[in-house]
Specification:
about 35% helix, 4-stranded antiparallel beta sheet, Restriction modification system DNA specificity subunit, restriction system, 3 domains, Type-I_RS_S_subunit, alpha+beta, about 350 residues, 3-stranded antiparallel beta sheet
Length: about 350
Amino acid sequence: MRYASRESSNSTDDYMRTYNVMRVGDIAFEGHTSNEFAFGRFVENDLGDGIVSHVFVVLRPLPGRRYDLAFWKEAIHDEFLMKRILARSTKRSTMMHEIVVSDFLKEVFAVPSLSEQQKIGRFFSTLDSLIAAAERQEGLLKQKKQAYLQLMFPQEGEAQPRLRFSGFNGQWQQRQLGEVAEIVGGGTPDSSNADYWDGDIDWYIPSEIGESRIAQASTRKITREGLNHSSARLLPAGSILFTSRASIGLMAFISHPSATNQGFQSLIPNGEVDPDFLYALGPRISRYAKKHAAGSTFIEISGSSLAKAPLRIPKLPEQRLIGQFFSTFDKIISAVEQQIESLQMAKAAYLQRMFV
C-alpha cells in the first residue's frame, strides 16, 4: 500500500492534540465490525481538510505518487478486496478491530495505470451520483407523502381535512376501527409436529413486515392441518397485516390467503371502508396502538383495544379517491427504491469484477 502514517493536530488544547489531521486523499480506519465489514473499514476523505478523533487511524498517500482519488475511494472501501488484507493486518481488541499499521503497509495488491484508474474512478463516481440522485428523489417523495397525509386527513379535534378532491365537502364520520374492519389475531402450530409445517400456506412473523406495501412470501409455511390445529386463521387476499408486538404498527397487504403468528392483529376491511384508504390511515392507527399497548412480559396491543381506535372516515367515493392517490404514491416510491437497489447491486457486481 502506498501510504505513510498519520499527522497529529497542532492544537494548543491538550485533548485536541490527540486528534489526527485528515487531509484530502487521506484514509481513516474504523474498526467496528458489521455484516457488511468483517474486520472494520477504510474511508477516504474526498471532502476537505479537517481533524478526526484519535480512535481513527489515519494514513496518507506517499508524496510524489500519482493516483486517482475516485479510484482509491472505491478500492479501500471494497470489502471483497480489503477483507483478506484486513484479516492479515488487524487484531481483535475489546470493542473493535485494531489495525496493525506496520503489517498493513506491507500489504500489496494490483493497481492499474493512472489513466485506467481515472476511467474506473469516473465510472464509479457516475454510479454514485445516480444512486445519490435516486436517494434524494426517494426522500423528497416520502416528505411529500407525509405532507399530504397531514393535509388530506382531519387533524386531532377537526372533523374534515384541509385539502380535498373537488366535489366533496362536509364533515367526516367518527367511527372505531372495529366497526369498519374485522380484527383477527394469529397463532403458531406445534413446532414439534412435522405434519403442520412446510406446507403451501404463508405464515408470517412480525420481523418479515417492513416498509413494503405488499408482503412478500413468508420464510416458513404451514399446512392446512397445521392451520386447523392452531389459533391461526386463514386471512383472505386483500387483508392488511398489522403487527401488534415487537415493532408495533407495521402494515402490509397480502395478495393471497395467508396466516400469521400471534404477533399480529390483522385487519379485514368490510364494505364500509376502502382497503387502500384504511392502509393510508396506517400511521394514525399505529400511533394509537403504540399509545395503548400494554403487557408485563412484552408490550403489545390486543385486538379488543385496537378495535377502539378512533377514525374519521368520509363516504366511500371520497375514500376510494384518497386510497388510490396514496396507493399511486406508494408505487412511485417503491419504483424509486427498486431503482436504488438495482444500482447498488450493479455497483457491487462491478466492484468485484473491476478490482483484483
